[in-house]
Structures are given as structure tokens and as C-alpha cells.
Amino acid sequence: MALHTRDAGLVMPNAWDGLSALMLADAGFEAIATSSAALAATLGRSDGRGEVTPGEHLEHARLLGRLTGLPVNGDFEDGYGNSADDVAATVEAAVASGLAGIGIEDTSGHPHQPIRDFDEAVNRIRSAVDAAKGRIVVTGRTDNFLQGRPDLEDTIRRLTAFAEAGADVVFAPYPPDLDALVAIVTAVAPTPVNVLVSPSDKVLTVAELQKAGVKRISVGPLLYTHAMGALEQAVKALAAGDLASATTGTSFERINELLAHGKS
After folding, report:
1. Which of 40, 87, 99, 146 has its CA 20 to 30 A from that of 247?
2. Looking at the chain, which runs of residues are DSSP E strands?
């Protein structure tokens, strides 16, 4: 939690496998996170539908932590369960697995009603906090903006309630603009706010986000999609017969060097 309360805050990038985690550790990042979307994609599944099991995500998070020795925040969708008790059980399992943090969303997994009712969402965060007992950083997240509900007032209401329920960090991916982000930061202060890259209208720098009061910056699946974009270009080159363009990239010597740095 100390990383969230210092003046500079932290950039907490999201890994999707052992090698990406080792690259982030080698670059000097102090903490990393999982990405439920990236993990699901590596398994050929969809995010936000409960298609990845809690056990699979926990084992994935344990791998990242074991290899890097860094604190790992688990991006655990809605807490993997329909009830508040299910959320508490997921938090207990995360603590037992050695995770440093866990994120709980107010999503439902149901396309026709993707955001849970206010009282239910708050109760699930409260259950997560009660189970955590200060042993793990709990992030309360609302996905209003991601799910096509551009309601800043309701977003602030939810995040404020999550903070009052004991969430250590709050998070609303992609607020519409910097003014909305500042309004969120101001409303929930002194609870730290996480931002997924930037507001929707413009990608800001780390320094600009910190000036706005943001304490944690994550990138969700975007490093993964960046890597997949490079792969897609290589695949197209290969399909066109361009072997030279298709076979550039990180050397296996570099990969083996990173793997050798992994914790046993």
C-alpha cells in the first residue's frame, strides 16, 4: 500500500505470461498486475463472462509473482461468484496465494444488465474488505464507462461508496476526459485512484496523470494487444512470403537471459 500513498504513486503494468512479467521486472517496475482480458485471450476465451476459473487465474498470478518476486495485483473480474460470500472466498484464496492486491468490479457478466445494482455492488466490496482484513490491497472498480453508461454522477457515487466500505483503491476505467478524472480524484480523496492508461479523449503522460492526482496507472490488456499487433504484422508478412520481416524481434538469447533471472 505504501507505493500508492507516496507522492509519485506507481505505474503498475499488466503481464500476461511469465516472459512478459520478467520483461517488466527487468525494466524496473516495482509491482505488476494480471489482466483478466489478456489472460482469457491467451486461453482462447472471452473476458468478463466467467470463462476463466478462479483457480486458473490464481495459478497464473502465482506464476508471475514466483518468477519476478514482485507484488502482484490480481484483476479478478467481479470476484468470481454470484454472491458476496463468493467474493469473500476469492479474496481469501488470493491472500493464501500470496497476492499483494485484488480488484473487484461491479460487473455482472450479463450482457443485458452488465452493471450490478448499487447496493449489491457496494455489499460485494464490503465483503471483500472484510475478508481481506488488511492483508491485501482491495481495489473497488466500477465499469460504468466501459459498459456504455456515461454517468459521471453515478460513477462518483459508486466509487465514494466503495471507499467508504473500506476499499484501499478505487478505479473507473476510461472517464470521458481530464475534468471527469479530476472530479473523481477530488470526490474520493484521500483514497488513491487508479487510471487505465488515460481518460477516453486523450492519452496523457504519466507526469500529467500524476499532476491530476492519480496514484496508480495500469495498462490492462494494452501491452498484450500491442504485442499481438506486432505478431499480426509478422503473420501477414509471412503469408506474403516475406521471411525477413516475419522473423525479426527479440532474440532467444535475450529470452533465455530473462528466463535465467526468474525466481526459482
Report:
1. 40
2. 10-11, 32-33, 72-75, 101-105, 137-141, 169-171, 193-196, 216-218
